[in-house]
Amino acid sequence: MLDTAITETELSATMRARARTIAAAGGLRAALASGEIDPVVDTTLSEALVLGLLKQGVSKYFAIFGHGSTDLGEALRVYEEEGLTRTINCRNEVEMAHAATALAWQYGETPAVVTSIGPGALQALAGSLAAASNGVGVYHIYGDETTMGEGYNMQQIPKPEQGLFGKLTATMGQSYVLHTPGALRECLTRGTVCVHHPYKAGPYYLNLPLNTQPQKVRIALATLPDRFEAPEMAPASTQPLDDAIDLICRYDRITIKAGGGTRGHDAVVTQLAERIGAAVVLSPGSTGILPDAHPQNMHVGGSKGSICGNYAMENAELLIAIGTRGVCQADCSGIGYPSAKAVININGDLSDLMHYANTLGLAGDIPAVISRLLTRIGETNQVDISHKSEWLKECAIRKQAWNAFKSERFAAAPIADDAWGKPVLAQPAAIKIVADFAKQRDIAKFFDAGDVQANGFQIVEDDRTGDTFTEAGASYMGFAVSALLAGAIADRPRYSIAFTGDGSFMMNPQILIDAVQHGAKGMIVIFDNRRMAAITGLQHAQYENAFRTNDDVAVDYVQLASAVGGVKALWGGETTGELRDALEQAHRHDGLSVVHVPVYAGDDPLGGMGAYGSWNVGNWVSDVQAHYLEQKI
């Protein structure tokens, strides 16, 4: 520990000089390698944390500072002034948790979220569910109660028990309380393994007590961990690969379920499907893993799937699950594969690997495992796909039916709507217009939770992963609009459109202010049906009645958004032509734009994309659970 005789003024001057030296050297690693800074430094825990995160490449912070983070904020101020970090101050902790998740998910940049203790940290923790559910690595740094035990700290959990925030965060994911400043090395070692995990990343919660932040500490910078980079892993023995080949040869009806873990591995998944004659069914988070028109792409399957996707699931004899957790809606609560007799599961996470019964698990990184399997198939020359042709023909017929079904809805004329008192566009037709607009201009798409999301992943026609981000893991309302803020801090921002419902938009409307404040460029399209249409539909399907899922309050979102200087807000109209014109005008705006589109909600079948699977909810429970016991996998 440092001699307490060192003054705060001296520490501040030393911190600035150190930051300036690091910036001049081109980064912390370069400064250490050249000897321009001492390998052992005397500083505060707050600066040591900033230095440790810099060593991992973390330099971007989303923050709402409070009394629990003033010392860390001071270190970030100095480091930003010297050009080493950047901090975006936000207006809502849930919003900034979503924006940080999007920065890591869309752009591959690891950020940190900073809040004080109390309600702010609890909101950020709630928002982190999106990162946890989708396997996205983000640092969450929460100011925590002091370690002195001098009495209650304002906004702590008011209970006489030690480390309560640490217990809360440890329930959600990996967590560390920096009770002792000298433990920073261990804290950051665990942190980088969590946020940079190759196939099961997640948020890492770093609880930073108020009184330890300014404490003096001696740190050996060279021993602070670099960013965790795990080597790719695959089965070392050929035996499990040969066992997989035996199963592939044994069954003609093979379906690959490409989960969210397949994102970015488009080429190897496509090669495997083509080599073994398998139909490929997507999860909401893996659209684009095969080009939309690829004959073996059966689109999304599950409780909100497609005609062809669910056919391929229901009639498969062999399931090849790749990078999927087997989430309830994605596999129809466990009864999506009634004809399956065996499973090959390719996954790095051992618990997910053995999710199904009668499973041959190929543990490891998806591209490494598939590449080894393809090589082994080539060496043995045992897989004859001519036997699979009839299966693919059957699937192709269902895909034609799905395309015809979609076309009918996309071409639907405006439908008279009771809430609007006039004909307005059906949601599938409106979403398709915006999705096509985005595809033609290479614009990324974010889908918010609810009916917009559910229809959206049935509608999008992606040819690669990374064009659509649908937060289906937690279905967090307000995620999509908040995600646009990531473009304000990304190294290479990509213009993006947030597809949101009226309910989801109102969860995080502060994006209107924060986007302007920080220069984010993008578009929000509000599909307004004045109700929670996804739940209304579920209530009707189960109980033939809706209950408390709508209101009678008309909101002029154009006027609301126009009240924020710098936002361009437009009425989307009631026809396809009016909507396209509004999109063009919105896209030309150099900043954030909002398009308000009234959409139909009701019983007309052209108003939605339908549902094709099962779900263990409501009055379907007994039937689903009875069928679950009949499954062979």
By secondary-structure content and strand pairing, the structural class works out as alpha/beta
Compute the gyration radius: what is it?
Answer: 26 Å
Through-space gap between termini: 58 Å
Total domain modules: 3
In the predicted model, the low-confidence regions spanning at least 5 consecutive residues are 1-5
CATH superfamily of the largest domain: Thiamin diphosphate (ThDP)-binding fold, Pyr/PP domains
Q: Report the helical percentage.
A: 25-40%
CATH fold-level name of the largest domain:
Rossmann fold
Q: What's the count of strands? A: 22
Model description:
Helix 1 packs across helix 2 (28-34), helix 5 (93-107) packs parallel to helix 6 (119-127) and helix 11 packs parallel to helix 14. The termini are far apart. The protein is globular. The protein is built from 24 helices and 22 strands. Residues 1-5 have low confidence and may be disordered. A six-stranded parallel beta sheet has the order 3-2-4-5-7-6, sandwiched between helices. Strands 11-10-9-12-13-14 form a six-stranded parallel beta sheet, with helices on both faces. It has three domains: 8-223, Rossmann fold, CATH 3.40.50.970; 239-397, Rossmann fold; 419-601, Thiamin diphosphate (ThDP)-binding fold, Pyr/PP domains (Rossmann fold), CATH 3.40.50. With 633 residues, it is an alpha/beta fold. Helix 11 links the parallel strand 9 and strand 10. The relative contact order is 0.10.
